[in-house]
Prior knowledge:
Radius of gyration: 16 Å
CATH architecture: Alpha-Beta Complex
Helix content: 25-40%
Shape: globular
Largest sheet: 6 strands, mixed
CATH topology: Spore Coat Polysaccharide Biosynthesis Protein SpsA, Chain A
Distance between the termini: 24 Å
CATH superfamily: Spore Coat Polysaccharide Biosynthesis Protein SpsA, Chain A
CATH class: Alpha Beta
Strand content: 15-25%
Order of helices and strands: EHEHEHEHEHE
Amino acid sequence: MHxxxxxxxRNEAPYLRExxxxxxxxxxxxxxxxxxxxDDAYESIVRPYVDEGLVELTQWPRLPPCHLQAYxxxxxxxxxxxxxxxxIDCDEFLFSPCYPTVSEAITAIAAPAWGAxxxxxxxxxxxxxxxxxxxxxxxxFVTRPADxxxxxxxxxxxxxxxxxxxxxxxxSPPTWEGRCPAPPxxxx
Length: 188
């Protein structure tokens, strides 16, 4: 089944190429990006991906907070499609520690009746860095707290577009315990 990402970003130009290429390697086939009032050089980064048909770019010049509005716009536009979509941020990297790609992880663990997966955060800190440095985000930020760090209880949603109707905000569900196959997917 098709895997896409829906994300909203602002002033992420230095990191967008790495973020897109990382997710292509882990099985993401399409990106639906909402650009929110960036004043950096994001266009030069995303234009080749838009031209390739990999990225759909939507201008979203609303005042923050506007993530949920953008997600609802996306859901209203694509509800009913037979895809899985991860709703993550451009500083989050979705991967599976147990399968070569996220797509394979979803195929292996998701029951046909499931409409969504909750993916726990794995927060990575500054790794001792006090100023921006050159290099990939995934190579520079490699230190994180233990799995039971309280912020890691938060989840991001990976949903089937043929099963979703609306964005809602509620209490966090319980976190996964143990190791593979649960948690099936992790992102920093």
